[in-house]
């Protein structure tokens, strides 16, 4: 009996491992090829509600509001992306252009003065250590110079690669726009066709999944909006106490940058603090490090609780799923893994599926 249980367990375990491996391969490698169609279907799903309302209010065939609303959607999205892209490109170009001047005019003289003072101090204490310090100083200055040059070269290479990828990106964009128009026009027919391929029980499960995922996704968006507001408030108060000019505007920029995984607030505040310390501004350097530490601690405490409460998961499970999703699938996994686990838990609790007790 025990042997049969072990065999059944191994068979079920192997089955789920194979299913997970197939899902991983599909999401990791096949999804980029179908990305235009996936995006078009998601856009059609999101635009379906306003299209239906316009169709009922105006008493016109679906094709007219579908074309109009889809066109407005792409115009608004294109204008927003273009505006943000030009702003980001302009800011990045200014930062990269100012980096060599900052190194040669500020950082290099400061390092040379710092090492000179250390040499004077060490020569009084241990004259034999002066030679080693000179070698270290030369290595540090040389490494920093190479780093600045590499950053400039990498930036130029990145811009060249981006320019080279424009034709392919433009082709995918055109395909996505065309497919989106067709899907928004025929969205009810497409969904009805897909649902007809499932048995009656499967249709109910898909309907439950759609309603639950949509509700959970909205809750997650609201949760992260709350976290973003808390982060903005903390940064604004901290920068105001540090007497930083334009504290509110800077707090808005850092809070928006905090949406990015891995980088977050640290992508701006840590380099800012290091530069302040290196240039001798100890007040702002230490203050920014303390502020970043406070923000990080509070973020790690509230994020699992807020997001976990909204998706119905324990904070530890939420945090673990977010980290696993981020490592495996990036931003999509960061949001998708908690929602997927929440969906599985909901279906399991309702008896639709039986995964865990």
Automatic annotation (TrEMBL):
Cellular component annotations (GO), alphabetically ordered: membrane
Entry's transmembrane regions: 9-27, 33-51, 63-86, 170-187, 221-242, 248-275, 282-302, 322-344
One Pfam family cited in the UniProt record for this chain: AI-2E_transport
GO BP field: transmembrane transport
Membrane topology of this protein: Multi-pass membrane protein
Keyword Lipid biosynthesis attached: no
Compartments, record wording: Membrane
Keywords: Membrane, Transmembrane, Transmembrane helix
Main location: membrane
InterPro entries cross-referenced by the UniProt entry: AI-2E-like, YtvI-like
PANTHER family found in the cross-reference section: TRANSMEMBRANE PROTEIN, TRANSPORT PROTEIN YTVI-RELATED
Family, per entry: Belongs to the autoinducer-2 exporter (AI-2E) (TC 2.A.86) family.
Protein name per its UniProtKB record: Sporulation integral membrane protein YtvI
Organism per entry: Candidatus Eisenbergiella stercorigallinarum
Gene: ytvI
């Amino acid at each position: 009996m025990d042997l049969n249980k072990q065999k059944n367990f191994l068979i079920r375990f192997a089955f789920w491992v194979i299913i997970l491996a197939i899902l991983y391969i599909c999401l990791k490698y096949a999804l980029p090829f179908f990305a235009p169609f996936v995006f078009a279907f998601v856009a059609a799903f999101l635009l379906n509600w306003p299209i239906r309302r316009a169709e009922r209010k105006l008493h016109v065939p679906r094709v007219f509001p579908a074309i109009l609303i889809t066109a407005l959607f792409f115009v608004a999205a294109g204008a927003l992306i273009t505006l943000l892209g030009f702003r980001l490109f302009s800011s990045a170009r200014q930062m990269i252009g100012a980096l060599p001047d900052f190194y040669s005019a500020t950082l290099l003289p400061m390092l040379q003065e710092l090492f000179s003072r250390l040499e004077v101090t060490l020569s009084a204490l241990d004259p034999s250590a002066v030679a080693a310090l000179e070698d270290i100083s030369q290595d540090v200055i040389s490494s920093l110079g190479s780093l600045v040059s590499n950053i400039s070269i990498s930036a130029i290479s990145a811009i060249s690669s981006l320019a080279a990828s424009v034709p392919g990106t433009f082709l995918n964009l055109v395909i996505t726009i065309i497919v989106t128009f067709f899907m928004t026009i025929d969205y009810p027919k497409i969904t009805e066709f897909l649902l007809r391929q499932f048995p009656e029980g499967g249709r109910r499960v898909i309907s439950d999944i759609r309603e639950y995922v949509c509700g959970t996704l909205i809750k997650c968006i609201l949760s992260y909006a709350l976290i973003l507001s808390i982060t903005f408030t903390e940064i604004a108060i901290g920068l105001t106490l540090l007497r930083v000019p334009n504290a509110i505007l800077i707090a808005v920029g850092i809070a928006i940058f905090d949406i990015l995984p891995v980088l977050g607030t640290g992508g701006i505040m840590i380099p800012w603090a290091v530069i302040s310390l290196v240039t001798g501004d100890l007040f702002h350097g230490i203050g920014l490090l303390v502020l970043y530490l406070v923000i990080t601690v509070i973020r790690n405490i509230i994020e699992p609780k807020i997001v976990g409460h909204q998706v119905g998961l324990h904070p530890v499970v939420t945090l673990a799923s977010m980290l696993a999703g981020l490592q495996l699938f990036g931003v999509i996994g960061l949001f998708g893994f908690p929602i997927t686990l929440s969906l599985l838990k909901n279906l399991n609790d309702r008896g639709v599926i039986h995964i865990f007790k």
